[in-house]
Design a protein that fits this description.
heterodimer; A: 265 residues; 12 helices; 75% helix; B: 248 residues; Rossmann fold; 6-stranded mixed sheet; 3-stranded antiparallel sheet
Chain lengths: 265, 248
């Protein structure tokens, strides 16, 4: 039992102890992604913007969504979703494509998952100015609820890393994982009120989608950036608890398998 | 304090045999039914078989053996990258695994950026590396291209940079896996001077090499392994001779 406890402690110590390495590796990921391209980091802004354009066209022109400042609503949910989905997609491959890191070094390979989550987070942060611009253009009011933003971000960090630990481990044993993950993410995306408002769903479906903690997460972003509300403290606390549990379970699961990684990768 | 830097006691390592596409569900399912609903045990292969030896502090220890004898597995076990099937390894001191030169190097990043990442991966702090940039680049004779991306380097320059990072970090126990003899002659000379400097400073060195002359020249003790067992252990001259005899 005490052994488990110290393992859990280590799970929270690794990101602090190796923060320099994680930060530099995350920057490296981004640098590599954009090096040689003329727009560089600008793509971090351009990509979601172009995606948004398509969605806005489909929903306001074709489906005639009448909600106020719909593009802002969409953008608020889409950006953290991209952070989440990108991190999970990349985490799946984190261990199997790590090469020397797992095979030839004694660093904890948990770092690799954290790097993916962080590099996608940096991407997210880079696109925030565009979001602010949209908020101003559409005259959406924001204010004090923004102070909750760091809390929501930390929660998403923990949840994403936790899930990342699981998918990265499974991928080592079953290379099908990457395909499964990709499809599951699609389902998940449409199962959450990102493009639509949950009020548009039948009552039963509304209850169903909120069985998913991630739906609350997205909802929290919408409350501070779109509705200018504080997220309900009870739900936020519950979400934080879920985040810590998911992270811990993911970490322990990863840890119990990682001894085999150098032999299988 | 123990007089040994590394003690290896009855070390055995078995690997599960990885078949091609071992985990397709169909294969598993069919196999499961055919075997009368029993879970199949994966066959294993013994890479190291009950090995015991120890390395005294401040000595240089050579490991020789043919390809596939188990040398690299042994080094990985000593570094703690993989865990033994049975037996124990006692380590006294900080080990830096230099099993692969330039671990984490990326062609798109500059020499400096790569030094930073490589150094961090080898366990240095950011400050320590920043203090050593010049030393590392000087040693590699690459100061003039410090901010060029690695993909523009020749393979000689690449290996010199990697070796220079490796050699300029300061561990108690240095493990060098077949990385001696990189670069041109003048660089090789500089490298062996650096090794001598390590020896003078009282570091423990573990060297894997295929070069009998080198082992005889710089090692205090050596070991020859073959098919996961120790064939010869002791004086480098005898080990080098046994290795040459085994090859011919």
């Amino acid at each position: 039992m005490s052994q488990k406890l110290s393992a859990i402690k280590e799970g929270f110590k690794i990101p602090i102890q190796y923060r320099h390495l994680i930060w530099i590796l995350a920057l490296k990921e981004l640098k590599i992604r954009y090096r040689g391209s003329a727009f560089g980091f600008f793509w971090s802004i351009l990509n979601p913007l172009l995606l948004l354009l398509i969605y806005v066209f489909v929903f306001t022109v074709i489906f005639k969504a009448s909600a106020k400042a719909y593009p802002v609503y969409l953008f608020v949910g889409l950006l953290p979703w991209n952070w989440f989905a990108g991190s999970i997609n990349e985490s799946t491959m984190a261990i199997v494509s790590s090469g020397a890191f797992v095979n030839k070094s004694t660093l904890p390979s948990e770092i690799l998952i954290m790097v993916k989550v962080l590099s996608n987070f940096i991407n997210y942060v880079l696109s925030l100015p565009v979001l602010l611009l949209f908020i101003i253009i559409f005259g959406v009011s924001i204010g004090l609820p923004l102070i909750v933003f760091p809390v929501i971000v930390i929660i998403q960090f923990l949840i994403t890393c936790g899930i990342g630990f699981f998918v990265a481990t499974w991928e080592v044993y079953y290379r099908d994982m990457q395909h499964i993950v990709m499809n599951l993410l699609q389902f998940l995306f449409f199962g959450m009120p990102i493009m639509y408002f949950e009020q548009q769903l039948p009552l039963k479906a509304q209850k169903l989608i909120f069985l998913n903690p991630l739906a609350y997460l997205i909802k929290s972003y919408q409350s501070i950036f779109y509705y200018n509300w504080f997220p309900k403290p009870f739900y936020l606390a519950l979400l934080a608890l879920v985040a810590i549990v998911v992270y811990t379970l993911g970490f322990l699961y990863f840890r119990s398998h990682k001894e085999e990684f150098p032999e299988l990768v | 304090m123990s007089i040994y830097a590394i003690e290896v006691l009855h070390l055995t390592k078995r690997f599960k045999v990885v078949e091609y596409n071992p985990t397709s569900i169909k294969t598993k399912f069919v196999g499961f039914i055919k075997s009368g609903f029993k879970r199949k045990k994966r066959p294993t292969i013994t890479v190291l078989d009950d090995i015991s030896f120890s390395i005294k502090k401040s000595t240089t220890f050579g490991i020789m053996g043919r390809n596939g004898a188990g040398k690299s597995t042994l080094l990985k076990l000593i570094c703690g990258i993989i865990t033994p099937t049975s037996g124990t390894i006692i380590r006294n001191g900080k080990i830096v695994p230099l099993l692969e030169l330039g671990a984490g190097f990326h062609p798109e990043l500059t020499a400096k950026e790569n030094i930073l990442i490589n150094g961090l991966m080898l366990g240095l702090s950011k400050k320590e590396i920043e203090a050593k940039y010049d030393e590392i680049l000087d040693f590699a004779e690459l100061s003039h291209v410090a901010n060029e991306p690695l993909r523009t380097f020749s393979s000689g320059m690449y290996i010199r940079l990697a070796f220079s990072v490796a050699i300029n970090i300061n561990p108690d126990i240095v493990i060098l896996d077949e990385i001696m003899g990189v670069g041109d002659q003048s660089f090789q000379k500089k490298s062996s001077e650096k090794i001598l400097e390590f020896q003078k400073k009282g570091k423990t060195l573990i060297i894997v090499s295929h070069d009998p002359d080198l082992v005889e020249k710089i090692c205090d003790e050596a070991m020859l392994i073959e098919k996961g067992k120790i064939v010869e252990l002791g004086s480098p001259a005898i080990v080098a001779k046994a290795y040459s005899a085994m090859l011919s």
